[in-house]
Amino acid sequence: MKNKNEILCINHLKKYFSTPKGILHAVDDVSFVINSNETLGVVGESGCGKSTLGRSILRLNEPTSGEVIFKGENILQYNKEKMKKMRSKMQIIFQDPYASLNPRMTVSQAISAPLTIQGVYKSSEKEKIEKKVSEMMDLVGLASRLKNTYPHELDGGRRQRIGVARALVLNPEFIVCDEPVSALDVSIQAQVLNLMQDLQEQFGFTYLFITHNLSVVKHLSDNIVVMYLGQLVEKATPSQLFKNPLHPYTKALLSAIPVPDPDLKMDRVKLKGELKSPINVKPGCRFTKRCVYAQPECENKDVSLKEIEPGHFVACHLVKG
Amino acid sequence: MTKLLEVKNLTICYKTDLGVVNALNDVSISVEEGKTFGLVGETGAGKTTLAKGIMRLTPIPPGDVKSGQILYNGKDLMKLEEAEIRKIRGKHISMIFQDPMTSLNPVMTVGDQIAEVVINHENISVKDAYVKTNEMLELVEIPSERSSEYPHQFSGGMKQRVIIAMALACNPKLLIADEPTTALDVTIQAQVLEMMKELKNKFNTSVLLITHDLGVVAQNCDDVAVIYAGEVVESGTVRDIFKNMKHPYTEGLFASIPNIAEDVRRLKPIDGLMPDPTSLPKGCKFHTRCKYAQDVCRNEHPKMTLVNDRHIVRCFIQENLVSRRDIDEK
C-alpha cells in the first residue's frame, strides 16, 4: 500500500528497556503510516508508551528493532552524522515547558541554538541569526521585547511558544508534539492549539500529536491511534473512533471523559483495576485483566490489528469483521 | 436549604519582595448541606488560597488575611484559637490535596496515617482506631491487608483513594477537595470521582470541589462559582452557569475547550493572559481581555448583579451599562 503522500512509515517498531525486574515492553510491535500535511493523534494513559514511541521515532532513544521510514529511507540505519542532518527535518515539541528549556539561555539563544548546531548559519553571522529569531518570534506570537529574557521570567504559555519556535526554526517537515498543551491552562491551551493549526496550514507540517486528552486529539487529528501497554489497540478517523469505538478499552476511555454539560449523563463502561505493568508481559491480549468481556481465548492468543471497515482497525478477538 | 459554610468578603494577600499579591479579593461563597459546590478557575485565580483560607492554613507570613468571615454552622472560624481550629480540621472539615504523590507521609504506613486522624479526633482505643482504619480502606476498595504498606507501594489512583479514606475517616460535614483528580488519568479520575459521589451520598457530606475542568464540574456539582484574578465573577446553579452563562470570561472558558460532542474547526480562546496579581488593573479585572470592554469597565469596579435569585454576575453588561450589540454586529 504505497501512497505518494506518505511521509513517515513505522514498521514493527519495538523499544524494550531492561530493568532489574525484567524486560519492559514500552513500545511493542507498533506499525502505522502518516501522510504528508496530516496529523496523527496518539492517545493513551500514562505509562502506555506514547512518549517512548515519539522519542523512538526520532531516535532520541534507540529503538530495539523495526523500521522508521522517513520519505522512503530507513533512518534507523543512518550513521550519526547523517542522522544529525536528518534531525533538521524532524523535530519535537516537549511536554513540559518548565523543564524543556535551558534556564541559562535567553529566549533568543534557545531559538537560535538549532541554527548554529545544524550549521545553517555560522555563529559569527549575528545579523542573520537575529533576523531569523525575530521572524520566528513573530510567527509564534512572542513580543520581540522578550528576546533577552530568561525562561523563568515567562509564563507557561509563552514558554511553550519558545518550544514551538525552536522546533520550527529549521523548517522541519515532521514534528512530534509530545503533550504540548498538557501543562497549560485551558484559555492558553486553546491559543497554542490554534497557533499549531495555523502553522500547519501555512507550512504544510506533518504532526504526530501525543496526548492523553481525547477532546484535544479529536479536534486536531486526521487519524487517531489508541495505545495500551505498548501496543496499538485501535486506529481510526476521529469520527469513526468517537461514533463507533470498537475496542473495549477505547469505549472505557471515551466514556470516562467528563462532558461539560450537566444534562448529558455519562454512561460509563467500567474498567477493572489499573494499568498493569509492561514488564515481562505474557502472551495474549494485554487488556484481558481489565476487560469486562474477556474470554478464555483472549488470555492465550496474541491479537493484531485487523480492518473492520475502511480505515478502521482494531486489535480485539471479540470484534468480528 | 441550610447553609453549612458561608465565606463572606474574604480578602487574602501575600506580601512578597516583588510586591503585594492580591490573591483573593472580597470573595463570598456558600456551600449548602449535602450539596457539592464547584469552584472553577485557572492557575493563579486564587482557588487554592480560598481552600487553605477556609481551613485557616494560609501561611502567615507571607500571607495576610485582611478581612472576611468564615461561618461554619454559624460559627466564625476566623475568631477561633489555634487549639479550637485543630479540633475542626479533619473532624468537621477535611481536605483532599491536589497531588496524591506528595501529600502522604512517605515514612509512615498508610494504615498508621489514617489511624492517626481517628485517634486524634475520636475518643476510642487504639485497637478500635485500627478497626476503623481497615473499614475505611475497604470502603475505598483497597484490601485492608495493605494497611501496613508504605505510600510508594501504591499507584497514583490508590494513593488518592487512601487520602479520601483519611479525609472521610471522622465523618466530616464538609470535604474540601482541591483538584483531587488533576494528577490522574481519565479512567482513574472517573473511578475516584464516582467513589467520592457515592461516599458523599452515603454520609451526606457537603463538598467544595475545586477544579479547572468544566467537565468534572458539570458531572459532579450542584452549584458553581467561577473565579478570576481573585474574584468571583459569576455564580449560580450548575445549569445557570452551563446553560445561561452571562460573564464574558465564563463564555471564553467554554469556547476554549474542544468539545467532544460537536465539531468545531477553530477554538476561540480568550486573548491575552491573566493580569499580574501584584498589579491588578483598575476597574473590572477582566477588562484587559474582554472584547466588550468600554470606558466604564476600565474605571469602575462592577458589582454583583442578580440574574435570578441564585445566579449572580459581576459585569457591567448585566447592569445595562455596556452593550454587547455594538461589538457583535461588527
Quickly describe the structure.
Chain A is α/β, with parallel strands linked by helices.
Notes on the structure:
The complex is a heterodimer of chains A (321) and B (330). Chain A has 321 residues and is α/β, with parallel strands linked by helices. Helix content of chain A is 31%, strand content 23%. In chain A, the strands form 2 sheets. Chain A has an 8-stranded mixed β-sheet, with helices on both faces. Chain A has a 4-stranded antiparallel β-sheet with strand order 2-1-4-5. In chain A, a hairpin with a 2-residue loop joins β9 and β10 (231-236). In chain A, α3 packs across α4 (126-140). The radius of gyration of chain A is 21 Å and the shape is globular. The model of chain A has no long low-confidence stretch (mean pLDDT 88). By secondary structure, chain B is of the alpha/beta class. In chain B, 32% of the residues lie in helices and 24% in strands. Chain B has 11 helices and 12 strands. Chain B has helices at 47-54, 82-88, 110-121, 126-139, 156-168, 186-203, 214-220, 238-243, 248-256, 295-299, 325-329; strands at residues 3-16, 19-32, 36-40, 63-72, 75-76, 93-96, 174-178, 206-211, 223-228, 231-237, 304-306, 312-314. In chain B, strands 6-7-8-3-9-10-12-11 form an 8-stranded mixed β-sheet, sandwiched between helices. In chain B, strands 2-1-4-5 form a 4-stranded antiparallel β-sheet, covered by helices on one side. In chain B, β4 and β5 (75-76) form a beta hairpin. The termini of chain B are far apart. The mean pLDDT of chain B is 86. Chain A binds chain B through residues 45-46, 155-157, 185-191, 193-194, 197, 212, 214-216, 218-219, 242, 252-253, 255-266, 268, 271, 274-275, and chain B through 42-43, 155, 157-158, 185-191, 193-194, 212-220, 238-239, 242-243, 252-261, 264, 266-270, 273.
Labels describing this entry:
heterodimer, A: 321 residues, alpha/beta, eight-stranded mixed beta sheet, four-stranded antiparallel beta sheet, 10 helices, 12 strands, 23% strand, B: 330 residues, 32% helix, 24% strand
